Amino acid sequence: MTSIINVGYIALPLWIPITLAAAVFQTWRTSLQARLKGHLSPVATGFVRYFYGLPLEIVMLATAYSYLGVTAIPQWDIAFVGLCFAGGLAQIVGTTMLIQAFHSRGFVVGTAYAKTESAQLVLISIFLLGARIQILAILGIFVALAGVLGLSLVGRIHLWSDIWRATLEPAARLGLGAALAFSCSSFALRAASQQLSGSTPIIIEGLFILIVTNALQTMTQGGYMVLRHRQDLWKAVRLWRRSLPVGILSALGSWGWFTGFALTEVALVRGLGQIDMALAFLVGHYVLKERIRWGEGVAVFLIVLGALLVSAAYVFPK
Description:
The chain is an all-alpha fold. The chain has one domain. Helix content is about 75%, strand content about 5%. The chain has 15 helices and two strands. Strand 1 and strand 2 form a beta hairpin. The longest helix has 27 residues. The protein is globular, with a radius of gyration of 19 Å. The mean pLDDT is about 80. Keywords: Membrane, Transmembrane, Transmembrane helix.
C-alpha cells in the first residue's frame, strides 16, 4: 500500500487522512465514555473500550485479508509482544486518569489537560530520539497546544499566580499524568510497528498491532477487575448496549492511530490529532450541553490553524 494518495493536484501523505479519521472516532468515543461516568466506575469505563472493541478488530482483520487477497502473517517476536504490552498498559493508565479528570471538571477541559502529550512527544522525539521534524510542523504542534491550553484556562486565569494554582488542581495533575502515559504508549507502539518485518500491507500490520495490544489490555484489566472490582466488571457486561458503541469507536480510532504510528513519527500523528479538541469543543457544546465562553472560539481557531500547519509542512514540504 502506498503511503501517498493523490487528491486533485495534491500529493497527500496517507498518515494525514488516517490521523484525521482517528481523531473523529476518538472524540465520538470519548463523548460516549463521558456519558458512562454516571453508570460505571472510571476503571470499568476504560475497560469497555478494549473488551467490546476486540471482536470488531478481529472482523476488521479478516475483512482486510479477504479484500486485499493477502495470505502472509506479520512476522513477530517476543520483543514485539513486550512492546505491545507496555504500550497497552500505559494506555490503560492514561485512559483511567483521563476519565477521573472528567469527574473533576467537564468533558472539554478534561480532554484539554491531556493534550500536553503533543509537546512531550515533540521534545522527546527531537532531543532524546533524534527525530527530524519539519520546523513548520513543530510550530503547528505548539500553536495547536496553545489553543488546547486556552480552552482549559479561558475565563479562569487572570494572573500568573492563577496559572500556577490551576496546575495544582486534581484535574490538571490527572490530565498531565494521562498525557505522560499516552506519550509512553505512543512510543512503545511505534517501536512495536518497527519490529514487524514489513512483509504485509500497512493496514494489516496496524490491525495486527491493535489486536495483540487490545487482547493483552483486555486480559490485564479484566484480570485486575476480577480480583479487585468484580461488581464493576459484571456491571460493564450488563450495560452492553451502552458500552458496545464505545468499543466499536475505540477499535476504529485505535486502528487509525496505530496505522499512523507505523507510517510516520508519533509526534506528527499526535500533533495533527489535536484537531480532536476542536471536535470536543463542538460535542461539549451541542451534545453534552456544556456552556462555552466566547474566548474558547479563539482557542479552537488556534487548534485548527496548528493542525493545518502540521499538514502543510508535509503536503507542501518545500
